[in-house]
Amino acid sequence: MITYSSDTDFTPFDKGAYASSTTYISGTAAVRAAEIVAVKIKKRAAALLGLAEYEMIRLADKQAHAPDGRSVTLTEIALDSLHRNNQEQIMGVASYVSPSSPPPFAAQFAEVTVDAETGAVTVDKLVMAVDSGMIINPQTASGQIEGGMTQALGYAVCEEMRYDEQGNARERDFRDYHIFQADEMPALEVIFVETFEPTHPFGVKAVAEIPMDGVAPAVGNAVRDALGVDVDVNPVTPERVWQALKVKREN
């Protein structure tokens, strides 16, 4: 037996399950495949229960229920399909291409502490309210948003690639290119504002990239609220805040 990991000669093209497409696009394909599997299970159940029609079979609680109250478990259906009558592997294959791309919406809030003498900015808390449709898995969705806010926080206050006059990178390791450690992170809060998106069978929308969008503007606005100066270049480093304060004092 030869097992192929993958080969473009017989593996169909797939754009990939990544970014904001996983739940919305791949999830819809999974729903369609599940519907195919459900029909096959109902047909098996109808045969086991001696019914001529399978459409009235109801699947619930790991069982197939007949209208007359009788039922057969999914375990029995699996054993029958694999080892007994008309052997088959119950499975479904489906794909999905969406004509729509409904956007998520979000509001980002930042609470910061700024040292007016040195320009040092400390982000104390980030709050993000997100409308990404119905939330299928709250734990992974909130983790996605928290991870995105963490990444965006580096862009907002500390991560920057600079080059010298010869074009050499000045930040060559994580000593100079600072990424937030766990003990440096601010408090994070995620608020889901659920709406039903009609283009998806479960009403979901994307949630992957939108956490990246609002952190830097929110931090910049919080600094302006605290000191009355605009720092319109990211990241908001102490030097840039100090320079903005200096210009304000001189004017």
**Rg measurement, Å:** 27 Å
Percent helix: 25-40%
Average pLDDT figure: 90
- Give the class from helix and strand content and strand pairing: alpha+beta
Order of helices and strands: HEEEHEEHEHH
Number of helices: 5
Instruction: Tell me the strand order in the biggest sheet.
Output: 1-2-3
Q: What is the name of the CATH superfamily of the largest domain?
A: Aldehyde oxidase/xanthine dehydrogenase, molybdopterin binding domain
Number of E-type strands: 6
Instruction: Tell me the fraction of residues in β-strands, as a range.
Output: 5-15%
The dominant shape is elongated
Low-confidence stretches: none
- Distance separating the two termini: 79 Å
Q: Just name the CATH architecture of the largest domain.
A: 2-Layer Sandwich
CATH class membership of the largest domain: Alpha Beta
Largest sheet, in brief, is:
3 strands, antiparallel
The CATH topology of the largest domain comes to: Aldehyde Oxidoreductase, domain 4
Structurally, how many domains make up the residues? 2
